[in-house]
Write a structure and sequence with these properties.
By secondary structure, this protein is of the alpha/beta class. Helices cover about 30% and strands about 25% of the residues. It has four helices and six strands. The chain has helices at about 15-20, 50-70, 100-110, 145-155, and strands at about 5-10, 25-30, 80-90, 90-95, 115-125, 130-140. Strands 1, 2, 3, 4, 5 and 6 form a six-stranded mixed β-sheet that branches.
Length: about 170
């Protein structure tokens, strides 16, 4: 077995799938998320923080803390990749819903509207950070109550910014 080309500072199955599709060897580098210990990353926008700055800050933080954890754990040095995606509507950041009702509320607000999706990717190598941002405009058609109910009772709305994943049923 070959050594990974990069460490992925994320538990996102979607990010893992993308790296596999690109043929990039990687190993997941788990960061602390337990409430029993201090978390490595606390996601949340600062007051009046623009959405693009927010997503860049989170991606940079994930990659930088991932680099620190790699060194602390004595792992073989490899570049560390961190990424984050956020959905915004009228400047408001839509994080991950905390359940089906929250996802339905978010998707109801996005229904029939145009919103933005921002993804930032940060790569730390030898301590230096490279950062890229991709922004897309997405328009939802008007969603019916039945469609919202159906989608939000699937597991697909869980753990996704804005309550949906464009690569899935959405």
């Amino acid at each position: 077995m070959t050594a990974p080309a990069v460490y992925l500072a994320s538990k996102s199955p979607r990010r893992e799938e993308l790296l596999r599709q690109l043929g990039i060897d990687f190993a997941s580098l788990q960061l602390r998320e337990s409430s029993a210990r201090e978390r490595d990353i606390v996601e949340g926008a600062h007051d009046a923080e623009p959405p693009r700055h927010y997503v860049e800050r989170i991606a940079r933080t994930k990659a930088t803390i991932g680099w620190q954890r790699m060194l602390q754990r004595g792992l073989p040095p490899r570049p560390v990749l961190g990424a984050d995606t956020t959905v915004t509507l009228d400047g408001e950041i839509f994080g991950k819903p905390d359940g089906a009702a929250s996802a339905r509320a978010m998707l109801g607000r996005l229904s029939g509207r145009t919103h933005e999706v921002h993804t930032a990717v940060a790569l730390v190598c030898t301590g230096a950070v490279e950062l890229r941002l991709c922004s897309s405009t997405v328009r939802f058609r008007r969603l019916t109550d039945a469609e919202l109910d159906w989608y939000c009772t699937s597991d697909e709305s869980v753990d996704k910014a804005g309550g949906y994943g464009i690569q899935g049923r959405a």
